[in-house]
Amino acid sequence: MASSYEKHKGNILVRLKRIEGQLRGIQRMVEEDKYCVDILTQLSSVIAASEKVGLIVLRDHIQGCVRDAVIRENGEASVQELIDVVERFLKS
Amino acid sequence: MASSYEKHKGNILVRLKRIEGQLRGIQRMVEEDKYCVDILTQLSSVIAASEKVGLIVLRDHIQGCVRDAVIRENGEASVQELIDVVERFLKS
Amino acid sequence: MASSYEKHKGNILVRLKRIEGQLRGIQRMVEEDKYCVDILTQLSSVIAASEKVGLIVLRDHIQGCVRDAVIRENGEASVQELIDVVERFLKS
Amino acid sequence: MASSYEKHKGNILVRLKRIEGQLRGIQRMVEEDKYCVDILTQLSSVIAASEKVGLIVLRDHIQGCVRDAVIRENGEASVQELIDVVERFLKS
C-alpha cells in the first residue's frame, strides 16, 4: 500500500531535514554557552515546525487511510486510531 | 558570563542528540512509506522531548539569569523577557 | 438532521456544566485573592476538561458527519473542514 | 498578603465571566443539536481565552510572588513551583 502522504513526501522530507539542522544548531549553541532565551526560542521553533509536519501528515492520513477505511469497511477502528493520535498530539 | 544551564549541559546535549537521532529515524520512515500514524507518534515524541529540554533550560534560566537580574537590578526587563519566552513556548 | 453526538449528549452536558461550575469557583478564588498558583492549577483543569469534551464531540463528528459525507458524496469538503477544526484545536 | 494579580483583578474577572457565558452558550448549542464543528470552534475559543487569563496571572505571579521570594530568601521553592505550574500548563 502506498502511504497517504505520498504526494507531500518531498515537502515533508525537506521540512524534517531542516528541523534536524535546527537541532544541530541548538547543540552548537549549548556547547558555546549561548544565552538561555535564545536556546528556548530555537526550541519553540523546532516544536512549531514539528507540529506543522504533523498536520501535513494528519491531513493526508484523514484524506487517505481514514477515508478509505470508512468507505471499505465502516472504519470504526481507523476512526478510533485517529482520535487517539490527535489526543496524543494535543497532549504533547 | 557562564550560561545558567552550565551544570546540565551534558544532560541537555545528550537529549538534543537523541532528538536529532529521532528526526533522522522519522525521515527514514517517510522514505520507506511507513504508516502515517507511526510517523505522527514519533513526531509527538520529538515534540514532548523538545519541551522537556526547554523546561530544563527554563528552570536553570530562572534560577540563574533571572534570579541574578532581580537581585542585581530589580530585574524588570529580565522578568518581561521570561514571560515572553514562556508565552512563546505555550503557544508552540 | 440529528447531531452526531446525540448518544453522548447527556455526558457532554454534565461535563460542560461542571466546567461552568469550575469557572465560577475560579472567579470566587480571584475575588478572595487566593494564591496565583492555585488559580493557574484550576485554569489548567478547565483547559484539560474542555479538551476532553472536544475530543468526545470530535470522535462523534468523525464517526457521524464525516463518515456520512464520505460515503454519500466523497466527503472532500467535510474532510477539509475536519482538518481545519483539528488544527484550530491543536493551536488553542 | 495581597495577591500578585491585584492590579489586574477587574480585567481577570471580566474575562472569567465571559468564558462562563461562552460555556453556557455551548450548553445551549448542545441542547439544540447544533453542528459539531461549531461546538468545537466554541470550545477552542474557551481554551484560548482560559490560556490568556492564565498568562495574565502567570505574569503577575512572576513579577510579584516569584520576584519577592527570590529577593527575600533565594526563592528556590518558589522557582520550583513556578516550573511545575508552567509544565502543567504546557501539558494541558
Mind sketching the topology for me?
The structure is a homotetramer of 92-residue chains.
Chain A: H1 9-31, H2 36-73, H3 76-91
Notes on the protein architecture:
The structure is a homotetramer of 92-residue chains. With 92 residues, chain A is mainly α. The first copy, chain A, is 84% helix and 0% strand. Chain A has 3 helices and no strands. The longest helix of chain A is centred in the middle third of the chain and has 38 residues. The mean pLDDT of chain A is 89.
Features:
84% helix; homotetramer
Short summary of the structure?
With 92 residues, chain A is an all-alpha fold.
Question: What's the mean pLDDT score of chain A?
Answer: 89
First-to-last CA distance of chain A: 29 Å
Q: Unreliable stretches of chain A, pLDDT < 50, 5 or more residues?
A: none
Question: Approximately how much helix is present in the residues of chain A?
Answer: over 70%
Shape of chain A: elongated
Largest sheet of chain A: none
C-alpha Rg of chain A (nearest Å) = 17 Å
Helices and strands of chain A, in order, run as: HHH
| Beta-strand content estimate of chain A | under 5%
Oligomeric organization of the protein chains: homotetramer
Number of helices of chain A: 3
